[in-house]
């Protein structure tokens, strides 16, 4: 593995956002609306806290073990056999994500675009670009994603304007009236797509600052969740809570509702040309993470030598995995959250405990490493007037407090929204405001950490 390969903080943030939005956009919307109906756009609050925990964990690993990825860290902490077992668990999940995304993309294209093309051909095409990019590193993929994902963000943010003539706010009313159990269940379902962020652990060696990694993951993931929340809200206000629950791809049906003029009624094709490359970047990143994990187990840093074999194995297993779109959606929506919650907290706990034990044995080395990492926290005098008022830690805590307050607003809305609709509406507005403000605070985290690094 080439230690000179690096990506910057912005590229990691865009990649994290792409990981969050790319896969779930094909699978989650219909089941969330079916479970929570008008309250489906509150389904990502638990995922936000879960991602914040993962971001803090990755930042801790980089602080303790710089220039190492999660596979190498597990080998270092748990030894040859223990590290191999943990790495195989992680690789199994990565393989499931990749197979799920490749199958989702191929069945999506087969259903809506290429009706007569054999499914095997639609799976083979992604295998070809996996092989092509498998000879390079995630640095190349991050640059490609850096071009396409901003276009996806702009297109998504323009959708409220493009759908303004179809917008009906009454379709999403009243809010926060569903039973708590249903909203909690929909929040658990989104953990499956939020757990995809774990693939960034394979690229921890490509950034050298713990605060950079933590703030980039927080900002990128929250941007993706903000876009998801906006999309679900638009689906509810344009299509209502009943019809999208029966659609396979509610987002595609939403895009089809865009009618700018009589001559611009097929903008779904334009948006697909933006979205499909973003999904391809996510699949390539997962594939490179799998190659890095396998190379750490077999102790072969030159992972391109296993590139073609692994790509063809992934393609073969994708063809055999799901017989229909129904099986795929059932796996993605209901099985993936169980898989994520079954192993990721366990891996985080094991690695954190092993790191603490190693820290006690080598206290003087940890103090030296922690001192160098903490020196990047304090902002320099080159910061702007806005960032002078808050340090990096203060921006982090402000974002956390806003998310806790938004959760408190949802709890109040669920308690009183059935009896006083005005309270439910006010709590929903508070939630939306807190989500947007938290996105701004995570953006300021990225800026402050950049400025503190530049002033060193």
Structure description:
With 456 residues, the chain is an all-alpha fold. The protein is built from 17 helices and no strands. The model is unreliable at 371-388 (pLDDT under 50).
Please give a handful of descriptors for the protein shown.
mainly alpha; globular
Note the quaternary state here: single chain
Overall residue-averaged pLDDT value:
84
Mind telling me the C-alpha Rg?
A: 22 Å
Q: What is the molecular shape?
A: globular
Derived structural class: mainly alpha
Number of strands: 0
Biggest sheet descriptor: none
Which regions have little confidence, pLDDT < 50, spanning 5+ residues?
Answer: 371-388
First CA to last CA: what distance? 28 Å
Helix content: over 70%
Secondary-structure element pattern, one letter each: HHHHHHHHHHHHHHHHH
Q: Count of helical segments?
A: 17
Strand content: under 5%
Give me a quick take on this structure.
The chain is mainly alpha-helical and 456 residues long.
Topology:
Layout: H1 9-24, H2 29-36, H3 45-64, H4 70-112, H5 119-133, H6 138-162, H7 180-194, H8 210-239, H9 243-246, H10 250-256, H11 267-298, H12 307-321, H13 325-361, H14 363-374, H15 385-388, H16 392-416, H17 421-454
Helix pairs in contact: 1-6, 1-8, 1-11, 2-7, 3-7, 3-8, 3-13, 4-5, 4-11, 4-12, 4-13, 5-11, 5-12, 6-8, 6-11, 7-13, 8-17, 16-17
């Amino acid at each position: 593995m080439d230690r000179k390969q690096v990506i910057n903080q912005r590229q990691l943030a865009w990649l994290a956002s792409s990981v969050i939005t790319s896969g779930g956009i094909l699978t989650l919307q219909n089941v969330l609306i079916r479970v929570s109906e008008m309250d489906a756009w509150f389904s990502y609050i638990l995922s936000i806290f879960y991602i914040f925990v993962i971001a803090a964990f990755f930042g801790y690993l980089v602080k303790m073990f710089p220039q190492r990825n999660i596979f190498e860290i597990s080998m270092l902490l748990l030894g040859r056999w223990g590290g191999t077992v943990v790495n195989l668990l992680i690789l199994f999940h990565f393989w499931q994500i990749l197979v799920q995304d490749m199958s989702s993309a191929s069945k999506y294209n087969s259903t809506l675009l290429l009706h007569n093309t054999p499914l095997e051909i639609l799976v083979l095409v992604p295998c070809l670009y996996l092989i092509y990019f498998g000879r390079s590193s995630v640095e190349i993929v991050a640059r490609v994603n850096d071009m396409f994902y901003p276009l996806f963000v702009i297109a998504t943010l323009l959708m409220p304007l493009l759908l303004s003539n179809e917008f009906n706010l009454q379709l999403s009313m009243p809010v926060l009236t569903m039973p708590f159990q249903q909203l909690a269940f929909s929040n658990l379902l989104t953990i499956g797509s939020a757990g995809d962020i774990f693939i960034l652990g394979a690229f921890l060696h490509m950034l050298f600052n713990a605060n950079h990694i933590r703030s980039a993951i927080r900002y990128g993931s929250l941007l993706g969740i903000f876009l998801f929340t906006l999309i679900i809200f638009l689906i509810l206000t344009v299509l209502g809570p009943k019809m999208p629950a029966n659609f396979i791809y509610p987002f595609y049906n939403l895009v089809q509702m865009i009618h700018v003029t009589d001559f611009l009624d097929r903008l779904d094709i334009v948006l697909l040309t933006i979205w499909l490359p973003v999904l391809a970047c996510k699949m390539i990143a997962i594939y490179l993470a799998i190659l890095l994990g396998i190379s750490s187990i077999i102790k072969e840093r030159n992972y391109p030598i296993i590139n073609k074999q692994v790509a063809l194995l992934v393609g073969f297993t994708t063809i055999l995995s799901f017989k229909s779109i129904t099986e795929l959606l059932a796996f993605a929506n209901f099985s993936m959250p169980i898989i994520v919650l079954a192993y990721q907290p366990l891996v985080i706990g094991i690695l954190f405990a092993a790191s603490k034990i190693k820290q006690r044995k080598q206290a003087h080395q940890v103090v030296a490493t922690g001192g160098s990492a903490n020196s990047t926290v304090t902002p320099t005098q080159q910061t702007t007037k806005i960032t002078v008022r808050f340090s990096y830690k203060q921006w982090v805590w402000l974002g956390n407090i806003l998310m806790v307050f938004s959760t408190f607003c949802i709890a109040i809305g669920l308690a009183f929204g059935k009896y006083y609709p005005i309270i439910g509406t006010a709590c929903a507005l508070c939630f939306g405001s807190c989500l947007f403000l938290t996105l701004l605070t995570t953006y300021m985290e990225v800026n402050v950490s950049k400025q503190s690094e530049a002033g060193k």
